[in-house]
Amino acid sequence: MKKTLLGIALCTGMAGVAYADPVPYIGAQVGYSFTDLPDADITTAAGQSYGFNKKDDDGFVGEINGGVLFPITDYFLLGPEIGIGMFGYSPKYSLNALGINASVKYENDYYIPLVARAQFPINDDFYLFAKAGVAYVNGETKENIQGKSFKQNQDAWKFTGSLGAGFNLTEQFSLEATYTYIDGDTSGKDIGNDFDDGDLVLQTNNIFVGVNYKF
């Protein structure tokens, strides 16, 4: 009899885990984004070096996303997530020396992250989460050299990863803070090589606060 009751209890527990309802959700977040533009300069035949001015390498970023979390255990949920984000700034190089008036502007317009999200409940109120996957980043470069303008579309698939924490405000709404890294070009050599290939995107670091809604 004891063995029978124990078997029923184990089967019931296993069924509870296996058939736990998935948790669909949507979210919106806003924050601050920055990129580390490499130094760039030009050197004359006489050995004089003139550095390019750098500006507008940080600013607004926003993202909306949605996904489904599947309870693996009481303390671990896992599922896919997709989103779309927009950058609100355009890093720029400029030079006005040696009779040269030139500028190059990089516009990372939007990105689409495709990631796996792992979530770890700490208690009824707090949870931690991590994301990893790829992001499609689309943008444009604009050159102005001696009054002549050129532009080229730029796009590439890059690694992206996130770490964050959340607080459950209600059963449906939660508040989240997230750090998101999107890989990209960070060196002058990479930027020079990728510029003409049409796959130049800048590495970005993004800090968000946002709200999630669970269905």
From TrEMBL:
- Note the superkingdom of the native organism: Bacteria
- Cellular component GO terms, alphabetical: outer membrane
Q: Which UniProt keywords apply?
A: Signal
Annotated signal peptide: 1-20
Domain named Outer membrane protein beta-barrel is located at: 5-215
Concerning SUPFAM superfamilies, the annotation shows: OMPA-like (SSF56925)
Write one Pfam family the protein is assigned to.
OMP_b-brl
According to UniProt, the name of this protein is: Outer membrane protein beta-barrel domain-containing protein
Species annotation: Paraphotobacterium marinum
Q: What is the lineage of its organism?
A: Bacteria, Pseudomonadati, Pseudomonadota, Gammaproteobacteria, Vibrionales
